[in-house]
Amino acid sequence: MLQEIAPLLFDNGFRVCTPEDQDLALVCDAEGVLLKEGETLELPRAGDIPDAAYTYLFAVGGKTVFLAQTDNPVVLPGYAYKPLSQLRRAQPKAIAFAAATGHQLYRWYLRRRFCGVCGTPTQPSAKERSLVCPNCGNTEYPSIMPAVIVGIVDGDRLLMTKYANRPFANWALVAGYAEIGEALEETVRRETMEEVGLLLGKIVYYRSQPWPFSGSLLMGFYAQLDGSDDISLNDGELAEAAWLHQNEIDIPFEDVSLTNEMICRFHWEGRRVLDTDRDPRPLREILL
Ligand SMILES: [Zn+2]
Fold first, then answer.
1. Most exposed of 62, 81, 130, 226 (fewest Cβ within 10 Å)?
2. Would the pTM count as exceeding 0.85?
3. How far is the centre of ligand 1, averaged over its atoms, from the C-alpha of 107 (Å)?
């Protein structure tokens, strides 16, 4: 998956520091990130943009990444803003993950410039990643939206879906955001009923994934169908849903998204995805 960058490490510990010239600079606009033009992703260096205000973000593979903010758009010869949507499958994966995750933090800093309680400009905390209101003390932390992905299993079949009103209509799985007051298992059952009108029995947690493009934390579950397999597309979110047999699922493993991994895992293991004693290794270790 996108965040699996081993043997490189993602170090998300909080620090207050100033950049050296060779540290990486993340320059964002609403749609994307400034990157060197070419086949492989390369961020500019802090020394290339000396007049920016820098905020430490994290380190990836031992390289320190700072958010660089300027009053006017940065123009750097040989660099261009690349839309976030083009980062998913770009290489090297560690830089794609860093750029997308940094852009998630950029959006959060941008949206929390003023206190939501009293309107005073916020200030970065010196002890943790938060923005504090100097007037009323309100503290804002990076927002992460929890969401579930559900692989619904009926024997050797998996319920596959296609979203309505999406630019790319690849096969996906039932998915949705957790509501306030809801346990994740309840989200799994509610989203399944809302999107395809099916009841579930056993629910088994699979794996999770930070998904910076939507600012969410995805949690994957496999679930056993309980009762009728008649699909009804209820809430208009889906254009299509169908039961696909394990052998009919012909989707290449991309090592990017949890949805793709869960679909490929079912193709690999079938109904064993519901067993708690199945192969514990991540799919990339099995297939790559
Ligand atoms: Zn305030």
1. 62
2. yes
3. 20
